[in-house]
Design goal:
The protein is α/β, with parallel strands linked by helices and 303 residues long. The chain has one domain: NAD(P)-binding Rossmann-like Domain (Rossmann fold). It is built from 9 helices and 8 strands. Strands 3-2-1-4-5-6-7-8 form an 8-stranded mixed sheet, with helices on both faces. The protein binds nicotinamide-adenine-dinucleotide. The site of nicotinamide-adenine-dinucleotide has 28 residues, from helix 1 and helix 4. It holds the Pfam family adh_short. This is 3-oxoacyl-[acyl-carrier protein] reductase.
């Protein structure tokens, strides 16, 4: 029996790139899939391909940030396949620009598709799972795999909209993991890297032979988190690409300062903090750069 036999999975942004690879891998692992992307031939081709390979897939096109799309995705899963067990939030767009040049629309589009797009589907999926748990008296099988990015860990200078949306997705993942644990939900986020339409201009053409940056290198972790082994994993963030799966640790407290009199004065605060920030030129401190060398053998460092 395959890991996801009998399970029903939604994948957003499944018309190409990572979403298509993840959808194919979930279907190959036995899942019946409901695939979303903006309306168009690309999504239908992925559906047809999965069916031709012996899998099950149905298209549910629409803007993932639309309330109606979230509702339709869950309804399609339930009406077509009898339930819902896995939600993979993956759809995304870029509108890269430095913060001081960014337009309202560039900000709104990216935050809307990524952050609201994750929220809307999660809202309807978790409502369905909560009702199911209440009706049966038992937490059911429920998995969410969200798609963040190392842009959030680094605070990519040319992607303030994208980095902020991806940071929001990590927080949404944690809040969902906490809020829905008792209903059986396991929610995790991945920070993938792969050569796709989104990153092609940055990464360049694929080499001859197997591509270490292929989206198919990311899909096994999504299947793992969606599968039985994912039962014990929730509220985690992974970096995944090539031959790498890295499990991130939580942010830590770097230094604690206490006011001697119980309340800080400006002078006391100056004295306390100036030692911490005495050396070198100012540089962003709350960033994670440890993931960069992990990609050196396949990608080189991220910008
Ligand atoms: N490729 C990478 O290296 C990389 C790195 C970090 C994060 N990511 C994230 O992975 C996800 C997939 O990226 P990709 O590289 O496969 O990109 P991609 O551009 O190849 O695919 C994104 C898909 O999302 C769809 N989409 C866009 N807006 C949509 C909307 N409003 N509603 C429904 N579908 C919509 C697109 O049509 C497209 O099919 C994104 O969330 C991206 O931010 C990718």
């Amino acid at each position: 029996m395959a890991a996801l036999d009998g399970r029903v999975a939604i994948v957003t942004g499944a018309g190409q790139g990572l979403g298509a690879a993840e959808a194919r891998a979930l279907a190959a692992a036995g899942a019946r899939t409901v695939l979303n992307d903006l309306p168009g031939a690309a999504l239908d081709e992925v559906v047809e391909q999965i069916r031709a390979d012996g899998g099950e897939a149905v298209a549910c096109p629409g803007d993932v940030a639309d309330w109606a799309t979230g509702e339709a995705l869950v309804k399609t899963a339930v009406d077509t396949f009898g339930g819902l067990h896995v939600l993979v939030n993956n759809a995304g767009v870029l509108r890269d620009r430095m913060i001081f040049s960014m337009s309202e629309q560039e900000w709104d589009t990216v935050v809307r598709v990524h952050l609201r797009g994750h929220f809307v589907t999660t809202r309807f999926a978790t409502a369905y799972w909560r009702e199911r748990a209440k009706a049966t008296g038992l937490p059911g099988y429920a998995r969410i795999v969200n798609t963040a990015s190392e842009a959030y860990l680094l605070g990519s200078a040319g992607q303030p909209n994208y980095a902020a949306a991806k940071g929001g997705i990590v927080s949404l993942t944690l809040a969902t993991a906490r809020g829905c644990l008792k209903h059986g939900v396991r929610a995790n986020a991945i920070c993938p890297r792969a050569r796709t339409a989104m990153t092609g201009p940055l990464m360049g053409a694929a080499p001859d032979g197997p591509d270490p940056m292929a989206p198919e290198r990311v899909a096994p972790l999504v299947v793992h988190l969606a599968g039985p082994a994912g039962e014990r994993i929730t509220g985690e963030v992974f970096v995944v690409h090539g031959d790498v799966v890295a499990l991130l640790g939580p942010p830590t407290v770097r230094a604690v300062f206490r006011a001697a009199t119980g309340q800080w004065t400006g002078a006391e605060l100056d004295a306390a903090l100036s030692t911490e920030f005495a050396a070198g030129p100012p540089r962003p401190g709350y960033v994670c750069e440890e993931t960069l060398p992990l990609a050196a053998s396949t990608f080189g460092e991220a910008p």
